[in-house]
From TrEMBL:
Enoyl reductase (ER) domain span: 8-356
Protein name, UniProt field: L-gulonate 5-dehydrogenase
Organism annotation: Arthrobacter bambusae
InterPro entries from the UniProt entry: ADH-like_C, ADH-like_N, ER, GroES-like_sf, NAD(P)-bd_dom_sf, Zn_alcohol_dh
Entry EC no(s): 1.1.1.380
Length: 364
């Protein structure tokens, strides 16, 4: 089979490799679609704590081609997970998305049901070979059946949808509250979609107007354009935010950019006794006030990957197919993978999710 291997910085080589051996408890999945995110770009640029060469791809969907002999449904045994559909009653021919998290099951986070932050956490396509290959072997318990009405290309976004839902759930939203979502990239937009479903009024902020226009389609009640180098919010924006929050500020802020100043804004703007969830990732340092957090008695939380929420993410996408489709701005064939990364790196176009269509993709 053919694999796209990131062999060194900004270099992909296509190489033939043997088909994977079907291990006990595993399934062979014919990969149909892979979507790319910022982490993929950092790995390709060799600016990520992993080693090259590596087969990338952690957001993907495909069709089950084979099951290990003697496989029996594990009945949803993921520690800490919801058990919804993940690994249950999987059959050959099923359309699936895959949970890429690898965890040890022995460390304290795993034993307390927080395996998404396992002390030895890994991820297919990030720390071990992933889905930019024709056929991949994965544990059956990591397979999530795709709803019948959901196209396989959209199903590849079940993983980022689960990340957005994890961040929202960490924030403990309540119907009738107002949330501020900082960043209207795919994670921020999917968080907005989910928050709106939960009865939360959402204000979205971003530096790009076209993203804010999309945020309205995802349910945002108001949008705030952040102008780099200018005060945020400006006087007019502050008045609107005060009006929508009865002068108290939003009870919940989802920080989905990873920009240090954005976390600083979150702490400054959130209401007293409010909650902040940091899902954007960056190695940069934030200049955080040591006064505001205790004075407001804030809950400041991180969020990473998800606790078996890919089935829920697929259901969210199924309920909102038009918004899901709007996220997908570019498509490339498997042979054009290098071109896809170049586009992400250049930032010369309005980019949402990039879809890599694998050789099997045209057969589904």
């Amino acid at each position: 089979m053919l694999s796209a291997i990131t062999v060194s910085k900004e270099t992909i080589a296509f190489r033939d490799s043997p088909e994977p051996i079907l291990e006990p408890g595993h399934a062979l999945v014919r990969v149909h679609n892979v979507t790319l995110c910022g982490t993929d770009l950092h790995i390709w640029e060799d600016d990520y704590p992993t080693e090259l060469p590596l087969v990338q791809g952690h957001e993907f969907s495909g069709i089950v081609e084979a099951l290990a002999p003697g496989y029996a449904s594990p009945g949803g045994t993921n520690p800490g997970g919801t058990g919804k559909d993940a690994g249950q009653d999987i059959c050959i021919g099923d359309r699936v998305a895959v949970n890429p998290i690898i965890y040890c099951g022995r460390c304290r986070p795993c034993l307390t049901g927080r395996y998404n932050v396992c002390q030895n956490v890994g991820c297919l396509g990030c720390y071990s070979d992933g889905a930019l290959t024709e056929l991949i072997s994965v544990p059956v318990k990591k397979l999530c059946r795709v709803p019948d009405e959901l196209p396989l290309d959209i199903a590849a976004m079940g993983e980022p949808a689960s990340i957005a839902m994890q961040a929202v759930n960490r924030g403990r939203p309540e119907p009738g509250e107002t949330a501020l979502v900082l960043g209207s990239g795919p994670i921020g937009l999917l968080a907005t979609l989910y928050l709106t479903e939960l009865g939360v009024t959402v204000i979205c902020a971003d530096t790009e107007q076209h993203r804010l226009d999309l945020a309205v389609e995802f349910g945002a009640a108001d949008t705030l354009l952040v102008r780099p180098g200018s005060d945020f919010p400006d006087e007019h924006q502050a008045q609107r935010m005060e009006s929508m929050t009865d002068g108290y500020g939003p009870q919940l802020v989802i920080e989905a950019t990873g920009v240090p100043s954005s976390l600083e804004n979150a702490i400054r703007l959130v209401a007293s006794a409010g909650r902040i969830v940091q899902v954007g990732i960056s190695p940069r340092q934030a200049n955080v006030s040591m006064k505001d957090i205790p004075y407001k008695e804030l809950d400041l939380m991180g969020s990473r990957m998800s606790l078996n929420l890919i089935p829920d993410g697929l259901a969210l996408l199924s309920r909102h197919p038009e918004q899901a489709r709007a996220l997908m701005t570019h498509r490339f064939s498997f042979a054009e993978a290098q071109k896809a990364y170049r586009l992400m790196q250049g930032r010369t176009e309005k980019i949402g999710k990039i879809v890599i269509e694998m050789p099997a993709g045209g057969l589904a």
